[in-house]
Amino acid sequence: MTSTDQNPAAPPAHTARIRTFHPRRGRMSDRQLDALDRLWPAYGLDIADLDGPFEPTALFGRQAPLVLEIGSGMGDATAAMAAADPDRHYLAVEVHTPGIANLLDLVERQALGNVRVAQGDALDLVRALPEGSLDAVHIFFPDPWPKTRHHKRRLIQPGHVALLRSRLAPGGTLHCATDWAEYAGSMRETLTADPELVDAHHGFAPRPAHRPVTKFERRALTAGRPIFDLIHHRRPGTPDATAGRG
């Protein structure tokens, strides 16, 4: 009898992890190609190269609260938030190569020393991070995987949320946003069910001023799709712990 026979709930050891994203490349402009070629060695991290635990402080050369952004798109929002928040580090994870290159270009043009860019599966990176090492996690407009048979690929589901929450410092922030109403309801149910997360607004949050409006969000609003923000904090470990800033 195998271990999975003894415990039907345990997946086989050889089961491949289900991806929550589509690998994407796309065409790049000459400017983006130049930025990727010159700046990736200084500002980039290939998640596939990680082998064991990863200490993010080494990327920045100094200690500061760390914000992890999963799915930074073309990087405009990341750059704007980092520029307005120089006392925290921003680690943006993306799989779309033109988006990575565009963010690197923004980093250089705006002299953003507090931004680094990672390529690959964000969950693999999170698994390598120390527990309690993140001040905030931003997940803005993840793929909603609208077909029912694809819901297993959604990023916001109980196991992934538990992993993300474990990497938040006590009081740290998990901030999600989506323009897909059904996914918003599923997100809210999943986040509320985690016993170590506290809903900051007892439901959908007012749109935070610190989250820039992206081109993607403007297209959603033009199409008549409402935007849903959800902001939760990890329960403080001590009475005087404070919540992350978002």
Characterize the structure shown.
This protein has 246 residues and is α/β, with parallel strands linked by helices. 33% of the residues lie in helices and 19% in strands. The protein has helices at residues 3-6, 30-43, 57-60, 76-84, 97-109, 122-128, 158-167, 181-193, 215-222, and strands at residues 44-46, 66-70, 89-94, 115-119, 134-140, 168-178, 197-199, 228-234. Strand 3 (89-94), helix 5 and strand 4 (115-119) form a beta-alpha-beta unit. Helix 2 packs across helix 5. The longest helix has 14 residues, at 30-43. The protein starts with a helix and ends in a 12-residue tail after the last strand. 37% of the residues are buried.
* CA distance, first residue to last residue: 49 Å
Order of helices and strands: HHEHEHEHEHEHEHEHE
**Sheet with most strands:** 8 strands, mixed
Structural class: alpha/beta
Helix content: 25-40%
Give the spatial strand order of the biggest sheet: 1-4-3-2-5-6-8-7
Poorly predicted runs are: 1-16, 238-244
Strand content: 15-25%
Secondary structure tally: strands: 8
Please, what is the average pLDDT? 88
- Basic shape: globular
- Rounded to the nearest angstrom, the radius of gyration is 18 Å
Number of helices: 9
